[in-house]
Amino acid sequence: MAVHPTFDRRRFLGLLGAASALPVVAACGSSIGGSTGAPATGGGGGTVKVGLVVPQSGVYAALGTDMQRGWELWLADNGQRFGDYTVETVIADEGETPQTGVPAVQKVLQNGGVDVVVGLVNSATALGVRDLLTESKKLLVVTNAGAEAVTSTSRTPYIWRTSFTNGQVAAAMGTHLAQSGFSEGVYAIAPDYAAGTEVITAFTKAFESGGGRVVGSAKTPFGTTSDYQPFLTGIQSSGARAAFCFYSGAEAINFVKQYAQFGLASTIPLYGSGFLTEGNVLPQQGDAALGVQTTLHYTDQLDNPANKAFVQAYTAKYGEAPSCFSVQTWDAANVLDRALASATGLDGDSLATALGTVGAINDSPRGAWTFENQTPRQNIYLRRVDNSGGALVNAVVQDLGPQSQPAA
Amino acid sequence: MLVSVLNGFAIGFLLFILAVGLSIVFGMMDVLNLAHGALFLGGAYLGATFAGSWGGFLAALGLAAVGGLAAGALLSLMTEPLRRRSHLDQALLTLGVAFVVAELLIIAFGDDPLSVSAPPALDGSVSVLGATYPAYRLVLIGVGAVLALAVYLVVERTRVGALVRATVADREMVATLGIDNRLVKAAVFAVGSLLAATAGVLGGPIYGARPGLDATVLILALVVVVIGGLGSVRGALVGALVIGQVDTLGRVLLPELASFVLFAALALVLVLRPRGLFGSPASVSTR
Fold first, then answer.
1. B31: distance to nearest CA of chain A, Å?
2. Which of A12, A72, B124, B229 is the most exposed place for a label (fewest CB within 10 A)?
3. What's the CATH code of the domain at A394?
4. Pfam families annotated for this entry (chain A) (predicted)?
5. Low-confidence residues of chain B, pLDDT below 50?
6. Interface contact A8-B208, CB threshold 8 A
7. Cβ separation of B113 and A249 shorter than 8 Å?
């Protein structure tokens, strides 16, 4: 055994991951060239340059596509302008990890000369660029990354968020399940990484303060678990009345399918954070997902005029229904437009001050929401997977009302 | 508990089909084929494309077999010029192939995770002593056992198998008998790759098909090879079944340690039996 293969492979994966980000972003930076000095004050026209940093490769690429579409749809519907400013978008690939995401943000700031950064799926990337933005005094609007710390312990005036927090979505489900006859016992399961821990913590806290009892919990190895049978057996033998989980992507597909295959779906109803059944995973889960209930701040089934118009325009343009990721990025354009109406400049301080005064965002597809500590206070919806005319959808069961980011 | 033991066998036989080729080629020629996981993933994508009906599922199996055979022969050819160089050079070549194949698969099939449905009639669940168990996995245990037995008998009981074992033990000596051991290597490489791609189709309904799955299964296969010992079919079989059980039972009994159980077992074997459970001392001492 002269070679230790896993070590070599990992090291090379890491190196390649880090190296692959550079040419992509460098190409981006050079292609758009100079023109950094936009007029500083509103009213006289000018250009605002936005760096849209979303995943174009890796496991989150599908989210990146949805995000980019949400951004482009808003701009297309509003003449590519924020008020008097013409919007110029520079796109960079966030990749999967901070090793690619942080350099991507750095490049759009330094080589791209952007005024505002929008995007970021990965929470570690959002936390990793904090100092970068503080030093350059530029504004970042996070349109996915849900880590609590982004707008709590690591809060900075330069980072705002139009998506959600992991705990906000999970706590709403905790409160709901405690009031729905499951207080006797729920089993909580999530992948063993930062977001999974945040979700389980917030769920447990809300569920227990509503009088519920968590009878068991498990953390599954993140990114490498494909077979959930051992954990499903644990759920069955725990005597739980219901199960709460947090999975997304490939893990969500496997978990939901196996939950049905091993016969749990008919005896222990499955609940989860909305990403379990959101976007492209739902058709892959198929009928195994029927009846699964989740909480989220959006579903394309929402019955309000803004959403109906949004879904219609989005579907007409891209041929598939929007996801929460599309809406989160659509709303980033929406709030930047409002902020630029009153901002005194394009620097981070002026924009942050202006964002603080935008008040209620009342034309969002997700329903009205407001900034609270730089992250949305918004309605969370209880959704159930139903078959609607041959297609699986997340139908609205109940509006759980406006929810804040849970206190740490 | 019964369900977990059953499941351990299903995963174990699947791992054996995946790992046996890797083990023999490594034991025989010192070629560590890091593209082995990519072959599995290729099979899984074939399953995702064609499965859904019996015809589609069997077509995917057939295509995976033919494609795996060709890919294995090609890989063998590519590593040939490096046979006098170090393990690292060969590993690097196959690692490069693995990356290229993974990227090609993304271009061809997209980067969304895909699920693979089991053939009709096996898509449901059956009741086993009161517990619900997916029918497909039960059948997989049977198919896996038959395949394992077939590979075992071929390698241990036939003239061709004797040639393979002799080449593992001492390839120079086999060469002096007038046998071109490059052909033996190419054949073993091709059949091992066939089995890996087939395992991808068979494992599809359990694991699905997604970017990154190749790395996950490659690591599992390497653990099996290390535990079982290089170049031994018996070792690969026992290693795969042990890993199947350890991985499922360990996670049931010690859910908090789920991430570590597998590698703890690996460490334990390495401490107690550094050459693996069935590793041959002769083939190691020549290195």
1. 11
2. B124
3. 3.40.50.2300
4. Peripla_BP_6 (PF13458)
5. 282-287
6. no
7. yes
